[in-house]
Design brief:
The chain has 118 residues and is α+β, with helices and mostly antiparallel strands. It has a domain of 77 residues: N-utilization substance G protein NusG, insert domain (mini-chromosome maintenance (MCM) complex, domain 2). It has 2 helices and 7 strands. The strands form 2 sheets. A 4-stranded antiparallel beta sheet has the order 2-1-7-6. Strands 3-4-5 form a 3-stranded antiparallel beta sheet. The longest helix has 21 residues. The chain is elongated and about 70 Å long. Pfam families: NusG_II.
């Protein structure tokens, strides 16, 4: 291989790394959106600890917020899928408590998709 070949290879590697970094980077979440039957009932800041309770058809769901993350701590649903989801930390992450018609989504300035339906 000659010097020009190494230069082309180096440029290709740098371009690939730059593209990967910019395309697969997610924004830092700013808010936790709590929805009941598809309607936003709370927009919680991820700057400070907080708890929010929302009543759905099956009972009360507890949303817990810590700096930079949020989770469904307690839900009356039978299978507890949204509780097992654990702490959400990435923008666009969602925990859906379908039987209780409640969802938790981390929101950032730039959305990864247009809408969410369940």
């Amino acid at each position: 291989m000659r010097a020009g070949d190494w230069l082309v290879l180096l440029v290709a590697i740098v371009a690939t790394l730059a593209a990967a970094r910019s395309l697969w980077r997610s924004d830092v979440p700013e808010h936790a959106l709590v929805r009941l039957r598809g309607e936003v009932v709370a927009r919680l800041s991820l700057d400070k600890p907080a708890e929010f309770r929302v009543r759905g058809p099956l009972g009360e769901t507890l949303i817990e917020v810590q700096p930079g993350r949020a989770r469904v701590a307690i839900d009356p649903g039978p299978r507890q899928y949204c509780v097992k989801q654990g702490w959400l930390t990435r923008a666009g992450a969602v925990a859906i408590c379908a039987p209780n018609e409640i969802s938790l989504q981390l929101d950032a300035r730039r959305s990864l998709y247009d809408s969410l339906v369940y």
